[in-house]
Amino acid sequence: MSSTSPYAAFATLLASSGYSVSPAELHGLLVGRGCAGLGFEADGWLEDARELLGSEPQDNVRQALLGLQAMVKEELTSEEFSMVLLLPGDDAPLAERASALGQWCQGFLSGFGLAPREQALSAEAMEVLQDLAAIAQVQSALDESEDGESDYMEVMEYVRLAPLLLMFVGRDAPAAKPSLH
């Protein structure tokens, strides 16, 4: 009794429409845009998604992208702030999940980098971005073992919290900031 995960359904939709982009990378791009302050206007998101996809999205993909945008907007603007990463399910091989996590980070960094900066980011925000860049590069370093699984879960939880950290430590904060450690 296996139900299709949201990631698998989106991956199937993209592949059947001729796109080779990972749903994780698209989701990361969208979350990165939101955390950078680019807002949630459909036109801006669809333009950035079109650029990543390499062509104008077909109607079914366009609708899925708008649905994804509505979900992320809710996650980033609700008071509970509960981010769900669009990644393969726990039943997928660890290498596939780790690769998708790296793609998510790559998309996030691309999306976050789209916003012009008037001020330098805080040291904490720069550290989070550097961590995400490192995670994006280490896509297949985990081995199929209990330790590999544990490492993946730890890294995924950090990545899940990264948007929260960036939304709060990257802003114009007062000189005295509480420590994250």
Characterization of the model:
The protein contains seven helices and no strands. It has 181 residues and is mainly alpha-helical. The protein has a single domain, classed as Four Helix Bundle (Hemerythrin (Met), subunit A). The longest helix is centred in the last third of the chain and has 24 residues. The N and C termini lie far apart (43 Å). The C terminus is likely disordered.
Helix and strand topology:
Elements: H1 6-16, H2 23-35, H3 42-53, H4 59-77, H5 94-113, H6 123-137, H7 146-169
Helix pairs in contact: 2-3, 2-4, 2-5, 3-4, 5-6, 5-7, 6-7
GO cellular component, one term: cytosol
Family: Belongs to the UPF0149 family.
Pfam family, one: UPF0149
Nutshell version of this structure?
Pfam families: UPF0149. By secondary structure, this protein is mainly α.
What CATH calls the topology is: Four Helix Bundle (Hemerythrin (Met), subunit A)
Low-confidence region ranges? 171-181
The percent range for strand residues is under 5%
Count, helices: 7
Main beta-sheet strand count, sense and barrel state: none
Oligomeric form of this entry?
Answer: single chain
CATH architecture: Up-down Bundle
Report the top-level CATH class.
Answer: Mainly Alpha
H-E order: HHHHHHH
Whole-angstrom Rg = 16 Å
Tally the structural domains.
Answer: 1
Helix content: 55-70%
Query: Quick one: how many beta strands?
Result: 0
How would the global form be characterised? globular
Q: Look at the structure and give the mean pLDDT.
A: 86
Structural class, from secondary structure content?
Answer: mainly alpha
CATH superfamily: YgfB uncharacterised protein family PF03695
Distance between the termini: 43 Å
